[in-house]
Every structure is written in C-alpha cells, then in structure tokens.
Amino acid sequence: MLRKFAVTSLTVAFLALGAGTCLAAPDPAKLDELKALNQQMFTLKKQMVDKQLEAGLLDQEKAAKIKTFIEERQKQVEDDFAKGQYSGFGKKHGHGFSKTSPSPSNS
Fold it and tell me: What Cα–Cα distance (Å) separates residue 29 from each residue in 20, 22, 33, 84?
C-alpha cells in the first residue's frame, strides 16, 4: 500500500513538473522583439570596437579578434532564436557562476 502511494505521488510530481515547462512556451512576438534588440546590440558592439580602434585604444589584430568573437556570438544567438530559445547574456561562465572558485567574501 505504501509502495503504491509512493509511486503515485512521484508520478503526479513528474507530471506536474513536466506540465509547467509546456505552459512556458515563448511568445513569438516577444522573441521577434528580442531578435531586433540583440541585432542592435551586436551592431553597437562592433561600432564600439571600430571607435576604439580609431582612438588607438586597440590594435588592428585585437579589434579583429573581438569582432570575430562578437560575430560568432551573434550567430549562436540567432541559431538559438531559430530553435525558439533565448540564451540571454551568455552561458553564465562569469563571476558568480564558477563552481570551482569560492564565493566572494565581504570582509
């Protein structure tokens, strides 16, 4: 009797969790807005690199590397949008997301 209750409870829990992800389908209109904003963001980032190059803050090689990285990231985001996904501001490898480094202390 206890075993049946446990199996039933787990089944209901898994179904409830699965239903939540189905209900959270992205809105196509909002995805289109995000696509447009991301396109603007990548265009501005490339313009900033060009301005830094003109100002002498970057050399030609470094600017080319940065722009290549921006273009690769842009393609990755566009691929995610094509799948109906949005990865946000990256893959969360920055400060606060590392599992190997300790969290910063306030001392």
Answer: 21, 18, 6, 11
Token pair listed for 20? 């939540």
For the stretch 3-6, contacts whose Cβ atoms lie closer than 8 Å and that sit 24 or more positions apart, written own/partner, are none
Distance of CA 73 to the CA centre of its chain: 10
Diameter over CA atoms, the chain: 76
Other beta carbons within 10 angstroms of residue 39's beta carbon come to: 13
pLDDT single digits (tens) 21-54: 555 666 778 878 888 999 999 999 999 999 999 9
- Model pTM? 0.57
Task: Round to whole Å and give the CA distance between 18 and 75.
Answer: 30
9 vs 39: CA distance, rounded Å: 46
